[in-house]
Amino acid sequence: MADSLLICGASQLLTLRGHGPRRRDSLSNLGLIEGGGLLVRDGLIAAVGTRAEVEKLPEARTAEKIDLGGRVALPGFVDAHTHLIHAASRAEEYELKIAGASYDEIARKGGGILNSVKRLRATTSEALKKRAHAALKQFAAYGTTTLEAKSGYGLDVTSELKILRLHQELAAEQPLEIVSTFLGAHVVPTEYRGKTGGTERYIQLIEQNLLPEIGESRLAEFCDVFCDRGAFTVEQSKQVLQAGRQWGLAPRLHAEQLSRTGATRLAILLRAASCDHLEHVNKNDIQALGKSETVATLLPGCDFHLGLKQFAPARPLIEAAAIVSLATDYNPGTSPTLSMPMILSLACTQLRMTPAEAITAATINAAYALRREKSIGSLEVGKLADLAVFEVADYREIPYYFGVNHCWMTVKRGRVIHAAKQV
Ligand code: NIG
Ligand code: FE
Fold first, then answer.
1. What is the mean pLDDT of residues 398-419?
2. What is the residue-wise DSSP string for 248-293?
3. Cα–Cα separations (whole angstroms), residue 203 to 186, 309, 348, 417
4. Is there a single domain that holds both residue 243 and residue 176?
């Protein structure tokens, strides 16, 4: 007998049904069903509709039932940019930043990413795993059902492989889906710095010692590069991403975060899955993104945490028809949050996106950014039964409330993986 589940009683069921990545006006189309419900069979959505439509199906009568009691349900959030595996916070740098030190200054003094690298190399796989498991429980508690995870705090063969193997082990040990990205080109590690040809030799290590193992053991699906001042140039980024592609890794990029480098143009040229950050894109970049299939992933948590005033130009990007998505960028240096609802609040107040646009950007468009639009991101027949249920009466209240968690239940592949404690 198939394992069926009837989920009904949502005051608003946001299905996000529709075709293609959402651009411009279609970002606002949530496919809302009032009093909606769905039938789940073996972890997949078998039917979606009004409560009456779903309840009259013969299978619904024998199915296990969850009544949402008038709450709001939507597809589980897809967090398309995280640096899941890291050893510790950088709270000491947070204090320095508040006192006036810039992100660049801290990085130049050996803090920043290199600080996290030093700590990760000194931490066992077991300890890293324990920290990641705790974080993943929190992601689920805030309504996330799929996340991308990048390496990039190892920056030597042993430590990068250690991170990527953890992605694989974690994916098997807990319910959230983890999409693995290799970010060996995050920055040039200390041992290669200040030496002639150091960067070139590090890129050689990536090409000759890391990518073959990653490709053969299928440890990552994507290859990312931090293309910015203090990290890698456009030419170097292109070299790494092309090498990654030879091993079957699709490109994505950290682009125009601290300065404009031309990384967005490179992402489009390489048909990258996404280019992320985009605080410093120019008008031509925006127009080019509007004509491309490369998703523009915005990470307002970074600017908020760093206290920066220049957020990514979300409205011009939407007007230009770019495929806008949102993510936490969960990491210890620039965005220590794993709350997608908080990101939605920032998207509304700082990026001037509407609640509907922000929800679309955090679900179906984020699924496009991870090339998983056929299986997740909307509540449609045949897709995974991945849902987030919020203790609110109207979907606009999801970003409206901030700094509190109203996620009432999270369902992954038809299984409840988080339920709020009864008070
Ligand atoms: O996405 N920009 C590069 N990577 C991270 C920051 C990493 C760090 O500071 O540790 C980001 O913001
Ligand atoms: Fe990042």
1. 97
2. TPEEEEEESSSS--SHHHHHHHTT-SEEEE-TT--HHHHHHHHTSS
3. 11, 34, 39, 40
4. yes
CA 185–ligand 1 middle distance (angstroms): 12
Q: What percentage of the chain reaches a pLDDT higher than 70? A: 99
Comparing 92-101, 234-243, 264-273, 321-330, the range with the smallest average pLDDT is 92-101
> What pLDDT sits at residue 368?
98
Ligand 1 center–CA 331 separation, angstroms: 7
Are residues 13 and 139 located together in one domain of the fold?
no
50 and 133 assigned to the same domain: no
CATH of the domain at 133: 3.20.20.140
Distance 83 CA to ligand 1 centre (A): 8
pLDDT tier at 2 (50, 70, 90 boundaries)? Answer: low
Same domain, 26 and 131: no
Question: Do 67 and 389 contact (CB within 8 A), yes or no?
Answer: no
The Å distance, Cα 49 to ligand 2 centre, comes to 38
Q: Which of 277, 334, 335 to mutate to test the pocket of ligand 1 (most atoms within 8 A of CB)?
A: 334
Residue 365 Cβ < 6 Å to ligand 1: no
Please indicate, yes or no, whether residues 30 and 112 belong to a single structural domain of this protein: no
Index of the ligand 1 atom closest to the CA of residue 254? 2
For 153-163, the pLDDT digits (tens) are 999 999 999 99
Q: What is the CATH number of the domain that holds 56?
A: 2.30.40.10
Cβ 252 under 6 angstroms from ligand 1: no
Query: Cβ of 132: how many Cβ atoms within 10 Å?
Result: 22
Same domain? 162 vs 189:
yes
Coil/strand/helix, residue 223: strand
One domain for residues 305 and 343:
yes
Does 154 lie in the same domain as 91? yes
Structural domain of 17 = 4-75+378-419
Percent of the chain with pLDDT strictly greater than 90: 96
> How many helices (H) does the chain have, and how many strands (E)?
18, 16
> What average pLDDT score do residues 38-58 get?
96
Quick check: 86 and 153 in contact, CB under 8 A? yes
| 3-class secondary-structure state, position 376 | coil
pTM above 0.70, yes or no: yes
Question: Given this model, what pLDDT does residue 422 score?
Answer: 65
Ligand 1 in reach of 254 Cβ (< 6 A): yes
Count of structural domains within the chain? 2
302 lines ligand 1 (CB under 6 A): yes
